[in-house]
Amino acid sequence: MTRPKPLALLLCVLFSMAASQPQAQTIDPLAPTGRWPIRDGSAARTPPMGWSSWNAFRTEITEDKVIGAAEALVSSGLAKRGYVYVNIDDGWWLQRRASDGRLQVRTQLFPSAVVQGSADTSFRPFVDRIHGLGLKAGIYTDIGRNACSQAYDLESPNLPVGSTREREVGLYGHVDQDIQLFLKDWKFDYLKVDACGLADFGADQSVVAAHAYRPMPPAIVRGRPAQTDASKIRGLYEEVAAAIRRHDPANAAFLSICAWGQADVRQWGKDVGQSWRTGEDITPSWSSLLQSFDSAAGRALYAHPGAWNDPDMLFIGAGEFDEHHLTEARSHFSLWAIINAPLLIGYDLRQAPQALLDIWGNSDVIAINQDPAGHQGVLAYSADDLQIIVKTLSDGSKAVALFNRSATSLQATLTADHLKFAKDAPIAVREVWNQQALPAFTGEMALTLAPHETRLLRVNGKRQLPGALYLSELPGLVNVAVDGVRQSELDPTIRRGMSPWSGSRSDGERPVYSGWGGAQADSAPYGTALAVGGRSFASGIGILSGSRIQIKNERRFARFTASVGIDDSTRNRKGSVRFSIYGDGRLLAHTRELAFGQAPVALAANVAGVNIIELVARTHDGSAQPVSTAWGSAALSEAAGQQ
Length: 643
Prior knowledge:
Elements: H1 6-20, E1 49-52, H2 54-57, H3 63-75, E2 85-87, E3 93-96, E4 103-105, H4 124-132, E5 136-142, H5 149-152, H6 175-185, E6 190-194, H7 206-210, H8 230-247, E7 254-258, H9 265-272, E8 275-277, H10 286-297, E9 308-310, H11 326-338, E10 343-345, H12 354-360, H13 363-369, E11 378-382, E12 386-392, E13 398-404, E14 410-415, H14 416-419, E15 427-431, E16 437-441, E17 444-449, E18 454-460, E19 468-470, E20 478-483, E21 520-521, E22 530-532, E23 535-537, E24 540-544, E25 547-552, E26 559-566, E27 577-583, E28 586-590, E29 601-606, E30 612-619, E31 628-637
Parallel strand pairs: 1-2, 1-10, 2-5, 5-6, 6-7, 7-8, 8-9
Antiparallel strand pairs: 3-4, 11-12, 12-13, 13-18, 14-17, 15-16, 15-18, 19-31, 20-25, 21-24, 22-23, 24-31, 25-30, 26-29, 26-31, 27-28, 27-30
Helix pairs in contact: 6-8, 8-9, 11-12, 11-13
């Protein structure tokens, strides 16, 4: 036997050691999981409703103001209609104690937080009082070291005080400690986590030197998604979510992510929190409402029970939505209702006029927002002046908002096609705000809209597809697990209003929300009509290649059908795409590789007994640019032989 030479022996040992170590496996994001990833906690089965201090008081909050709002929710009857959260925003903190890092409440504002005989402060008595009213309590923090007020509300008397580190009241470096304090010790039910601490405290910011903050390299670069570190932002919010799971084993807490539509949050917000802001802060102006609404209205496929698009809080009661602008106030409420936005009142309820209480308390409008199916309304028609949004309700009826964005009256035509109802059958119509029945129509009906008016209707008719529904009617069953967007782009479709912060001092407001090219209902990813090989599709899903869509079937539907192919408007015309259908992780059907210009291919699968359907569009050209694809007329049938 020949003895190995020392070098050979060393190499042999190293090879053996390497072989014994577990090898990192490349995870294929398009591989079906057969698992629904969204937490289905009781706190988020429908959009949250309640009150928040920010729009009413900014940092000028006190215990009396907040308790007064809570008591008004109860006495006005709003609590019985679902407004149960009472949320404190920025301004509550005094400092982070240097000795042990514990957050201290500003007891001058919240006297019940004083702990006799201790240096500690505690929100527990305050939260107990909120709970005693039958309500839930929410609190505010930031994902970075410092809060938004420390950059933008510098004249406030309620900014954190003390040394540089004592004024670092955000979560960064204290996630587990603070989440335990908020949820386990203080018993809060709702947590809003802002992101100014990772956007506005870079070394080049004048506020950093002026107020002796520790610089934080910006992970969010506002308006520049290519420079934003989306993976870092997601990782930090995932750390918060993990801490919530540790300290909230009952899965009852609500996490509101406030990254203003930045850092690709539309892709991952649903996997991490229960709601995510889709745009900048709303202000009480019509221009700001349009901007906020636009940031969420085109993202219906990204929201569902347990996870909601958040265009920001209601500003009803102030500015162009006050008691002298009730048409605008009702439009605000109607639009937030039909896109399943959180309904968080931002008004001093201790002095609310009845006209505003009647808007917030309209149970028929609330019912549209709180419908248990959780289908966000889908844009059926969209122009600069008029939009028609249609939402499928759990009883099979539809809610419809006809939204006049303009300052002049206009005539709108609502068609059976908008509703995906049969053209030859009567459609019953009822106005939601006044419960007035309108004459039934067949085919189409004309409606007059006053300036800034939203006509909110509830309609019933015969389905366009007998025994089946288009997938775009059911966004609440959809999870866009991977949307194929490889490079974040600013979304040019969102209205650009004059900035309330800088006016016209800059060269104009740029688009600031990433998300251009995301999955769309009844539209191609970049806003064109769905079409494959010259054939148009009024219904379907437009999504980029390299994508995986999940459908929560839960054995309800028996058959899935679609006509698939590369969309005629694709930017990349060289790539080929294979379309596949999976059921609970098992391949059910697929196409060959399809090229640009080819006619659509019929693709169907028996999904009876399947819990999770997954639709995969995989490209094979290796290009960095994805291909626009269409799942034309994608539909779910209740009987295997239909469609």
